[in-house]
Design brief:
heterodimer, A: mainly beta, five-stranded antiparallel β-sheet, globular, B: mainly beta, 11 strands
Amino acid sequence: EDQVTQSPEALRLQEGESSSLNCSYTVSGLRGLFWYRQDPGKGPEFLFTLYSAGEEKEKERLKATLTKKESFLHITAPKPEDSATYLCAVQAWGGAQKLVFGQGTRLTINP
Amino acid sequence: ETGVTQTPRHLVMGMTNKKSLKCEQHLGHNAMYWYKQSAKKPLELMFVYSLEERVENNSVPSRFSPECPNSSHLFLHLHTLQPEDSALYLCASSRKQANRDANIQYFGAGTRLSVL
């Protein structure tokens, strides 16, 4: 069974304090790993897709990396507007293109 | 705006009511999904429609009944719900990809459902 575990469950940082969020996964055959951001009262917003180990993608202060067992979302010099819940999900080959999500990391950036 | 619109945004219903959730996508996609998001639990896939055909029913109770009349619209019909069904119901859409590139699912803002 495909599974995703995210850590920590919650993270509180000061503005400008860099850190990383972890996503560990087990999947029968990885088609893609996804990162989403979710603000309170809204649906998840797509950030990145990673396909194979060693791949990296960047967007503003965020950088996502992928190994064969886990993915990291690195946040460099965060700002208060980066506060949100960050969700990781995997998609396996075959099946109905469904996403299996982790529980998310709730990130708070204090000014 | 993600191009996926859900209505209503909030819904309160009694256990004997019948209601429907609506989702509409303006992205030209051909696959649509219903997810359930409960407090302290990961998003759970409920149903997948691909090219208007249901291809996944993730062991969802029969009190939830999906309908996909065309590639732009998706409904979730609700009847005789239980209080534990209270959650955020999210709709998503994607382009069905036959090649290596994993499809990207775009989500609506969700319907917050409370069952009394």
